[in-house]
Structure formats: structure tokens, C-alpha cells
């Protein structure tokens, strides 16, 4: 692509050198530079890309985008000075791949809990409606039927535009994207044109990165603040932060709720472990998904699909044949009559939602056993809160390891235990080895009891001392059950 074309709509402070160069590739990682690349020097949290300008030129980069010009300028290189390299990278990536987000209806979903579920459910609903779409989520990236491995909650902005361009080429009309606070903060959504932005909820999470809840809230809000006036913002107004997201947005404002008046209103008529009978905007339907959090997830899916112009009856018909998202309230019953639920819940709010959903359904003749932990090298303040929730809402809570990463599992467990109230001391035990903790839950359980294994959901690994070991909660449950029932 010609450099002059690549720079369209991008505010440039200074240009030194030729602007009629051909650019072969766009990179911000100096290790990936090839001949005639354009290298963007981004100031990151760990390293400053400006330190690698010289090595990028040595590897073949002919164009450099930076915030600070080097002292000695090479006459054979084009230097472009901008105010913010990180934001410029997003705009360059969009131009480089032909602005694919403007050729699709791109829907972004953000919030603390439910982002993956809503994005995946939207993809599945639109497949049921007969449309080829793209999905960018934590669990997987899909373009139609093609699956691309996912590595981060929000991929880097070059990868996002590559995937969206592939979606355009494949004839997709819609793309559904999980938008994380990290992605917003690091400008990974810069230059993207969103048709609809959905907000699920905002609770305690990622304070290891954002430091304060206020900063976390402002980061999420920025996603809505930066929407164009031709976009639609739809938020959960049962969450006190739902209206905050809409305060400064130029987008058309829409709402959904179970408890308050909203454009999209839902009610639960019946619920059990097999599914729910729901009423959305006066229309009844059955879904095999269960739990109050899934009512909110489906209501947002319903609202987004409605705003995209689909008839509400056909949307509900497509929703009614949905299957559960992997690792999200995934249920199965052993031949011994014990009911297992595997869920990704790894925040206080998510864990409380799962346990409340179970307690709403069970008759109280069954016992609820919860196996859970907290990830290492992450927000410490949520650990005691989760200890309190699990012991308060379970018959027995077994505290164990999640992904300890570089932390000592025993230290994490002690921080979780600190939140257990005295009246619940007899309702928990701690077993650092996750496999042994699940084994203890099965040993303790009797027919009709319910075992919730929370925290990892779809993940098939456990990260210990920086090394990922294969570990799948569902596999371990099935393996242990077969061994123990012989």
C-alpha cells in the first residue's frame, strides 16, 4: 500500500522524508519487521518501542511512526511524528486493511461478566438466522465455520483488522467482538467503527491493572464516549453503572432490564436445571440456558438483534435452540445422581450469580458443594470477598488453586480464607491441589447433591510458576467419577 494512502484521516505533526513509499507490512513489534515495513514505536507498559527504532531500520523498515524523533535522522527513511503512536496504530491498521469495520456491522460487548457469553450467543443466534458472521472472543475467534485460536481477551489492533478483513472477504455481514477493559485502555479498539456497543455489568475486577474502581469504570465508559452518532449503545440499567455508560455518548441510547422500565424488558416465568421459560417484551419462549445471569445475557442478545432490524419472533425462535456456551454454567449429571456445574466465575459478582442461580433452583434437600480458587498475580482485594460469598452460599466450600501463576498457592488461599465469617468456619476446607479438591467434593457428595467447580470454565490448563500444565475441570470430574465409582 502507498504510504500517502495509509495516512488518510490520520493527524500528523511532522513528516521527514518521502511520503510516496510502498509499505509492505505494518508492525509494532520490532522482531516482526521485514523489508519495507512501517514500524510504529509504541510506548508500552513494559518497554518503549522508541528504543527499537534503530534495530527496526536495520531489519528493513523504511517508515517509522513515532512520538519522539530520533536525534539523527537517516535520509533514506521516512519519519512520521504523531501525538499518540498507540492510537495512530489503530487508525493505520484500519486503513492498511481497507477499513473492514466500516464494511461490516461490528458489535462490541463490554462489561465485567458476560462479555464472552453474549458475543458467542450472538454469533450462534445469527448462525441460526442463516448468516455467516465473525466472532472475536476469549474462547475462540471464528470467521464463519473457520476457527482461529484465541490468545488474549482482545487481540492487538492489527490482528483485529486482519480478522475483520478476512470476514469481509468471506462474505460476512456481522462481526461480534468481546471488548475488554485492557483492550480499551491499550487502544486496541482504536480506528474501529462499531455499529452497536452493549454493556453487561460492572463489578469488582482487574484492579491489579486499573488500580481503582473509578479508573476501571472510566475505561469502560470511554468505549461508549468514543462511539459515532450513527452507532447504538444498549446498556443494562439494572446495573447502577448502566446509565453512567450513556452519559456522554453520541450514540443512540437503548436499555434493557429485568427490574426496571427499559426498551427491552425480561421476566423469568419458570426455571430449573434443564432451562427456563422466559418472557421478553411480552413474548414467551423456552431456553435450555439457565440462571439469572443468562436471562440478562439473552436479553442483551435479543436487544442487539432487534436493533439490527430482525423481527422479535424470529430472534426468540433462534434463541430457543441455542446451546450453552462452553464452561459457562455447563451442567451434567453423573450416573450416581450427583449434579455437576462447571463455570468460569472468577469474580465475586460472577461467583455470587452462579451460587444464587443454583440456590434459586434447588429444593434445599440437596447440598451445594463449591470448589473454587483465585488466580495469582491478579487483584488481591477480591479474594476475601469470594471466600465470604462461597462459604455463605454453599453447604461446603473447598478452597483450592486456580491459576496461581508465579504466586504461592498457600498465600492465595490464606487471603481467600481471611474473608470467611466466623459463623461459616465449619463450612469450608482448603486443599491446594485442584484435582484433590475436586476428588474431595465427589467423595463428600451424595446422590442429588450439586457440585459447582468454578473459576476456570472453558480453560484446559493450569498455570503454575509461569508454566501451563494441561488441566480441564470437566475432564478431571469425569475421570475421577469413573475411578471412584468402580
UniProtKB/TrEMBL annotation:
Residue ranges of domain Mur ligase N-terminal catalytic in the record: 24-97
Domain of life: Bacteria
Domain Mur ligase central per the UniProt entry, residue ranges: 109-304
Catalytic activity line of the entry: UDP-N-acetyl-alpha-D-muramoyl-L-alanyl-D-glutamate + meso-2,6-diaminopimelate + ATP = UDP-N-acetyl-alpha-D-muramoyl-L-alanyl-gamma-D-glutamyl-meso-2,6-diaminopimelate + ADP + phosphate + H(+)
Chain ranges of the Mur ligase C-terminal domain: 327-457
Subcellular location: Cytoplasm
Modification after translation (UniProt): Carboxylation is probably crucial for Mg(2+) binding and, consequently, for the gamma-phosphate positioning of ATP.
Entry annotated with the keyword Ligase: yes
Role: Catalyzes the addition of meso-diaminopimelic acid to the nucleotide precursor UDP-N-acetylmuramoyl-L-alanyl-D-glutamate (UMAG) in the biosynthesis of bacterial cell-wall peptidoglycan.
Annotated family: Belongs to the MurCDEF family. MurE subfamily.
Designated name of the protein: UDP-N-acetylmuramoyl-L-alanyl-D-glutamate--2,6-diaminopimelate ligase
UniProt source species: Chryseobacterium indoltheticum
UniProt lineage: Bacteria, Pseudomonadati, Bacteroidota, Flavobacteriia, Flavobacteriales
